[in-house]
UniProtKB/TrEMBL annotation:
Gene Ontology CC terms: bacterial nucleoid
UniProt entry keywords in alphabetical sequence: DNA damage, DNA recombination, DNA repair
Protein name, per record: DNA replication/recombination mediator RecO N-terminal domain-containing protein
UniProt superkingdom: Bacteria
Domain DNA replication/recombination mediator RecO N-terminal intervals: 1-68
Any one biological process term the GO annotation gives: double-strand break repair
UniProt KW Cell membrane keyword: no
InterPro entries cross-referenced by the UniProt entry: DNA_rep/recomb_RecO_N, NA-bd_OB-fold, RecO
Length: 199
């Protein structure tokens, strides 16, 4: 395996003293996990933040070997991690994607939709401007993996929140049933913060 491509960083798990195992979503190759040497070091720590867009150079000697990756930052989501709602939304969208998608299966529509969602979260003036995009992304993910129906029609914020609530049991049952970590905890935190926004 040898590829160079832009990728959305979905997750970074500590490995050894300074390395990380990064999970990245590429348009043509789907989700790829790779070893990033020095990923927890001073230079790369700001790069391996979930939600960041990176230019990834990924190499492996065989398909059974965990690839090595060199990452270069393209777009940082770091400035939004200090804002409670955007930080919670970025954490949920990336954790859900990292947990639900199988490795090395391309999903170009999900790659484009996740990129658009993250851009919306980071450029919107308020959460009410991106909640519908989040609900549509979850619905697309369910549909792409064979668990959803039609694209929902969303007319207002209340309807977007209703759809988020309706989709949670499906996500828990079908997309996150085999996960060891409680990925839904990130969703619950986001939903609590959204509830405070409209109360």
């Amino acid at each position: 395996m040898q590829l160079t491509a832009p990728a959305i960083l979905l997750a970074a798990r500590a490995h050894g003293e300074t390395a990380v195992i990064a999970r990245m979503l590429t348009e043509q190759h789907g989700m790829v996990a790779a070893y990033v040497a020095g990923g927890r070091g001073r230079q790369l720590r700001p790069v391996v933040i979930p939600g960041n867009v990176v230019q990834a150079e990924i190499r492996a000697k065989s398909d059974s070997q965990l690839p090595f990756a060199r990452l270069e930052l393209v777009t940082s989501r770091g400035p939004w991690l200090g804002e409670p709602l955007p930080a919670a939304a970025i954490a949920w969208a990336t954790a859900l994607t990292a947990s639900a998608l199988p490795e090395r299966n391309p999903y170009p529509s999900l790659h484009a939709a996740l990129g658009g969602l993250l851009d919306a979260i980071c450029s919107a003036g308020a959460a009410r401007d991106w909640v519908a995009a989040l609900a549509l992304y979850e619905a697309l993910l369910l549909r792409e993996l064979g668990y959803g129906g039609q694209r929902p029609e969303i007319a207002n914020l209340g309807q977007a929140l209703e759809i988020l609530d309706r989709q949670e049991p499906l996500i828990g049952r079908y997309l996150l049933a085999d996960t060891r970590a409680d990925v839904l905890a990130a969703r619950h935190l986001l939903r609590q913060r959204l509830a405070r926004m409209i109360s």
